[in-house]
Amino acid sequence: MAVALETAPAPVGRTAASTRLLLGAAIASAPLWTVVSLAQAATREGFDLTRHPLSMLSNGSLGWLQIANFTLAGALAVAGAFGLRRVLRGTPGGSWIPGLILVHGAGMIAAGAFVMDPAAGFPSGTPLDTPAALSGHALGHMAAGTVSFSALIAACYVLGHHFSRNGRRGTTAASRVAGTALLLGNGWAMTGGQGGSLTLAVGAVTAMLWISLVAARCLRTV
Questions:
Q1: What is the domain count for the chain?
Q2: Which of 7, 86, 100, 145 could be a cystine partner for 151, CB 3.0 to 4.6 Å?
Q3: What is the DSSP secondary structure assignment for residue 117, as one 8-state letter?
Q4: Which domain holds residue 157?
Q5: What's the mean pLDDT when you consider all of the chain?
Q6: Residue 192 phi, psi (nearest 5)
Q7: pLDDT per position as a tens digit, 128-147
Q8: Which of 104, 105, 86 is nearest to 153 (CA)?
Q9: Residues 127, 121: contact at Cβ < 8 Å?
Q10: Which residues lie across from 122 on neighbouring strands?
Q11: Is-contact 33 70, C-beta < 8 A?
């Protein structure tokens, strides 16, 4: 799908080069997080995406991989937000979109710093039941995830507004679908519904990749 954006006048010289670098960070964030997360989900012993959220991969002897994944992807999103601010300034939603992406990235970094509790049989050897009480770092992870996902959902909807102002029906719909996928996926997971971790993963990946696609289109204007 072609993604057409209203953008500010293209920067020049060193500013253009740094803007391209920042937008490249935004482009890389979602694919990095998705590939690293799903590769671990498919290969780590005892992990079941229908029962375990991707955040739980931060536990166990290889947990550092997912912690680093959250931290690096979040840092890339934060950097990318500054690139988006440069190319979207003065356009509909041009201040809100980068700000929300920055909050999303900061939330990912915090989610890497605060690790979920082992539960539901993961890592292997963990009791199958859910802990009676959450630890402080697990609560911190939930709070960080809530902030990050809320900002990402809002960014998708504001992008929908941006595209609708420019008469782009297809990309308006795609932005709203991406935001709604995460909104519903996260909502279902929070209810504890069967397969909630899978719906959350689908929603998060959809919304994150949409932001990367939009950043890629912005890069073409620099």
A1: 1
A2: 100
A3: P
A4: 14-219
A5: 92
A6: 80, 15
A7: 887 778 999 999 999 999 99
A8: 104
A9: yes
A10: 119
A11: yes
